[in-house]
Amino acid sequence: MNWSETCHVAEKDLPTRFISFCTLMLLCFVAFGMTGCVSMNIWRHREPPLAKADPPLSPKSSAEEILARVNENAYSEYSPNGLKSYRCDDVKVRMKGVPAPMRASIVVEAPRNLRLRVANPLTGGDAVDLGSNDQEFWFWAKDSQPANVLVCSHDQIAVATKVTTLPLPFRPDWLMEVMGVAPISGSGYEIRRMNQRSPIVELVSVQRTPDQNPVRRIVKVDMGHGVVLEHRIEAMDGKMIAKATLSRHFLDPETRLILPRQISIDWPAAEQVLALSLEFTSVDFNSPAQSVAMWTVPNLPDYPVFDIGAYAVRQLGNQHHDPANPHAGDTGIAGRAKIEDDSGTEDDSTDSNENVITEAGAWSDAPLPLDTIDRPTQTASMQKEQPDSPELPEDSPTDDGAAELPPDNARPFPE
User: To 5 degrees, how large is the angle CA 289–CA 294–CA 298?
Assistant: First the structure.
């Protein structure tokens, strides 16, 4: 398929391609949101019990105090010793429905840098290359059709959504928060409890997605241990959009950072439940900064780059062109494929329109009042106990010594 054919069928293919792209993107981003200490092999050994938060959080702690405590685990200007980066060159990824584990390598660095390479289980060569930097994220699969490296600017997610019905209503920063290398953002959180004596609470804030739709951001926290158990995004009618469940938390004795060994992801928009289990041999924790090449879109022979954000801009008549996007409009950049309009005429101009509108893809920083938007009194998750995590493959690794957290009502606060 030549580029002319590719561009003319792009509108039909983009939703399917981008859904698959974002499904795997979410899978991989969230799957690796767990880390270890420098070059450690403790994942293979029995884990000590998870320590209580020190000093313990009071049952009367405010939402701000709870967030401040859990955010101490992630790197920020207020927590310079928090989790900032990690690298693992020998990762086994187990996914529900996939009989054999997939071997991969991953490098993560706050605030948005990520590089994941998944090996072909038969040949050992690269089968998937997925990455992100401060400006954009990309995805390449060896057997993808059409054969492209797909890219999209972080700031053009909202624009791409208008054209491709992209089922990714949240910013990539949310994924980095789930992974633990970025503090939980937002304000206006309120506390909700399923049991007044339970140390398990939900922090709820109503915010807007990049396409300006209001949603609930929910963070489930174990106040007794000071750890996050769940990140969730719900529509205002209570319908779940995405959920990441963190379990088997471990306290690293060297860094005193709390690390989840397992994350399960449920994404109804992808029409499937992604159940994951990871095996680490050694992890370089808070390792030295990586080279620029690590965070650069790969230049692969026979796989031209297709900029989904630029395509969306073209379909919208450049009304949402973002001058800050290094690949918006068209390519003029080595390795970037030209995008043709419906008439088949190539357009190499990136600055022909002076009256352009910049549309950022980030959530609105200003929270929406919880009581000003119609919503059910309780979400479905608050009306009944949380279901068990999706079943993992039978050969998933287990560890009888893992520091599992008991149910919500198992550790009541003293009266």
Answer: 170
Is residue 270 within 8 Å of 19, Cβ to Cβ?
yes
Q: Which amino acid is at 363?
A: W
Sign of the C-alpha dihedral computed for residues 4, 6, 11 and 12 taken in this order: positive
Residue among 99, 95, 102 nearest 123 (CA)? 102
Give the H or E element holding residue 234: strand 227-235
pLDDT tens profile 214-257: 999 999 999 989 999 999 999 999 998 888 888 878 777 777 87
pTM of the model: 0.65
Q: For the chain, list the domains and their CATH numbers.
A: 3-383 (2.50.20.10)
Cβ-in-10-Å burial (0-12, 13-18, 19+) of 383 comes to exposed
Q: How far is CA 222 from CA 15, 213, 383, in A?
A: 38, 29, 19
Instruction: Give SS3 for 215.
Output: strand
